[in-house]
Amino acid sequence: MRPYHMVSLGGYIVEWDFPYRNLIVVNKTSEPIKVEIPVFHEEWISEHRDLGLDVIPVSREDNFLRLWKKSHAELDKIRPQNE
């Protein structure tokens, strides 16, 4: 995953009983970080948080667009101007 970039992994969740409908993944670091996809288990979240990524689980009751825009605004605050 590129530095100062974010992605949605809703289409890459392959486990039927996964507790979230989507995951927003944000790389706020200046280094690329490899993200393992597809998502098979809930431990994936903690494994990727340990790598330095922000992982925001989106449940069925959550508003995806609101969470996406909030994460994007936070990322814009720290993103270097020349990115």
Automatic annotation (TrEMBL):
Superkingdom of source: Archaea
Pfam families in the record: Ehbp
Name assigned to this protein: Energy-converting hydrogenase B subunit P EhbP
Underlying gene: ehbP
InterPro entries attached to this UniProt entry: Energy-convert_hydgase-B_suP
